[in-house]
Amino acid sequence: MGKIEYKAIFFAILAAALYAVSSPVSKLLLKEIPPTLMASFLYLGAGLGMSVVDIIKQRKYAEKTEARLTKQELPYTLGMVLLDIAAPIFLMIGLTMASAANVSLLNNFEIVATSLIALVIFKEPIGKRLWAAIFLITISSIILSVEDISSFSFSFGSIFVLLACTCWGLENNCTRKLSGKDPLQVVIIKGFGSGIGSLIIALISGENINIYYNISFIIAALILGFFAYGLSIFFYIYAQRDLGAAKTSAFYAVSPFIGVGLSLIIFREIPTPSFIAALSIMVAGMYFASTEGHDYEHHHIAITDEQSHSHDDGHHRHVHKETIIGKMIARLFDL
Predict the structure, then answer these.
(1) Structural domain of residue 186, as residue ranges?
(2) Are 69 and 185 contacting, i.e. CB atoms less than 8 angstroms apart?
(3) Where in the chain does DSSP place strands (E)?
(4) pLDDT digits (tens, 9 = 90+) for 49-80
């Protein structure tokens, strides 16, 4: 495992940590904000926050640019936005019906969806350990989704969460096709596109909110969106450049466990026997997912700079066929 891959793993885990606060904090905010509007505010917060970051970056590092999106990526961009409209709405509805801890743990089903879609549609290989992880995570998700063992009835809240995970699994693979482009541009398009789309749906469906009375909740939702969606997605895209959609999703899976811990603390929830069983199985599944080998052959996305340059400038010590992760993260937070 090389230095670049370790960096990509760090980005994936950082993205997971930022997203972990989403479920428990969203659960609190949903007391005052309807689900679809909540989904809208989260993505609008991501779009607004990352736009400010982009403006600052462009002013300070105007000469350093990354490849911009083109018409060639339009189908994946549209798919990303549409799926990001549906997924958070499903998740917010699920949060109104299920405990925050259950929802946090069920989020790991995104690994199953991402990996299987990556295999079937995009032909990304899956190793034996990841197959074992998929099996264990699926079993754990079924346990978490069963509301009444005696009648084997499913929780509607869990079903909505699983629908959200499936949408995000497909969206992860769309985003993977854009990971060689400017991450800031991708996140901004994702934020405003999905946020405005969700807002339109909320208004059409009759959701409303007293803006003056709930302004503090709205601001909190926008800030949560910037960190849990904007920065998290930004780092996730960087990780995908070298890990691929399936393996990035595997490392990202530490997020639900952080979310579970926060949920149990915030809401003083007492874990049920079935939750503890599901958690144990999920931990085993995450072990297999995180130890999946990376020696199989796959294609990295080439990352190109759009500005002209010379190869003796100390910045471009590379062969253009190789994937390059620049120092944008360090520059971005060294403002």
Answers:
(1) 3-332
(2) yes
(3) 146-148, 153-154
(4) 999 988 988 887 766 667 888 888 999 999 99
Indicate if the pLDDT at residue 333 is higher than 50.
no
Closest CA to 83 of 114, 112, 111: 114
Sign of CA dihedral 327, 312, 68, 87: negative
Of 179, 178, 164, 200, the closest CA to residue 84 belongs to 164
CA atoms within 13 A on the CB side of 309: 17
Residue 34: what pLDDT?
A: 94
Residue 39: CB atoms within 10 Å:
33
Burial class (CB in 10 A: 0-12, 13-18, 19+), 120: exposed
In a 10 Å sphere around its CB, with 0-12 CB exposed, 13-18 middle and 19+ buried, how is residue 127 labelled? middle
223 exposed, middle or buried (CB, 10 Å; 0-12, 13-18, 19+)?
A: middle
Q: Give Cα 37 distance to the centre of its chain.
A: 19
Tokens of 196: 């405005």
What pLDDT digit, counting tens, does each position of 170-228 carry?
Answer: 998 888 888 778 888 989 999 999 999 999 999 999 998 887 778 999 999 999 999 99
pLDDT at site 64? 62
- Does the pLDDT value for residue 245 go beyond 60? yes
Q: How many domains does the chain have?
A: 1
Q: How far is it, in rounded angstroms, from Cα 285 to Cα 293?
A: 15
Q: What is the pLDDT of residues 255-308, one digit of tens each?
A: 888 899 999 999 988 888 989 999 999 999 888 877 765 433 333 333 333 433
Which is nearest to 27 in space by CA: 87, 103, 141, 107? Answer: 103
d(CA 103, CA 29) in angstroms, rounded, equals: 15
Q: 229 vs 18, 40, 192, CA distance in Å? A: 8, 11, 12
